[in-house]
Amino acid sequence: MPDIWVERIYSQNLYPLMQRSVTSLSNSVPFAVFDLLFVSILMAFVVVVTRILRTSEQVGRFRRARLIVSRTSVVISLTYIIFLLAWGLNYRRVPLREKLDFDASRVTPQTLESLAVVAADELNALYPIASEQGWPPLSALPDNLGPAFQITQRTLGSESTVIVGRPKHSILTTYFNWSAIDGMLNPLSLEVLVNDNILPFERSSVIAHEWAHLAGYADESEASFVGWLTCLQGSISSQYSGWLMIYAHVSRQLPRESLARIRSSLSEGPREHLKAITFRLNRSIPNIRLVSRRVYDRFLKANRVKDGIESYDGVVTLVIGTRFEANWLPIVM
Q1: Which of 20, 48, 134, 317 is such that its CA lies 20 to 30 A from the CA of 99?
Q2: Is the pTM of this model over 0.90?
Q3: Please, what's the b/e burial string for 16-33 (b: 16 or more CB within 10 A of its CB; e: otherwise)?
């Protein structure tokens, strides 16, 4: 299926229409619909397996095992088809870099270091104001950051914008902590789930990233790019959160000497915040975090994200390779 068909028919028309209805419904309930779906599917699976295991002894063990595998495969296949129709086809849309004034040749060691310097300068300038104003709670972000998200969608040329999802906590919070997951989009009920242990200064960038997924930007680098643009259109605290995210990504790609020099230019506030994020992530369980990353890496590659889990850091390439107007407004082709 040509990506331009997916873009014009699904991502720009059918999906936004469906998203506004589905997300409005999931926003109207106080709990995570994902939790209800997860528990219901798990219970149904247990019931089916139990019934198969209790079948007549005339049915051998191999026959029972084959029934369990075949019925599980059918359910997984149907779920994947629903996933594609509800959200997953966005993996097959036109890449964001083809819509922007993007040139990969702009990405050099020098421009990489320049972005790190800009991020450090922005953090130093924004920190005193953001810390004085305080960090908005999750419940306030739809009103606080939602308008900026609408502006960003229109800036990127969306013909039909989506609505924001109400951030919710899930019964999977413990798993999120064990595997160092900040948040996720439930692609079936189109709602945003958030790890309730993310730090106050992370909230805006995490929520904006998940909202970008909600808008159909399936690739992780694109979601981070759209989330960053959204933060820059928001309040001072959101701008700070966005630059903190970009600094974290770009710092992983800098040579050790350059990173040490730029890190020394950070004021105490941003340095402490980066340490706090690292400490939170390090409280995860290494084996669970590793398995979770490997599973998600295979999932992304199966859905045509060739860089897999490494696509998270691809936001740096998007930022450096894109040409901007004033106030970090990207130029759209």
Answers
A1: 20
A2: yes
A3: bebbeebbeebbeeeebb
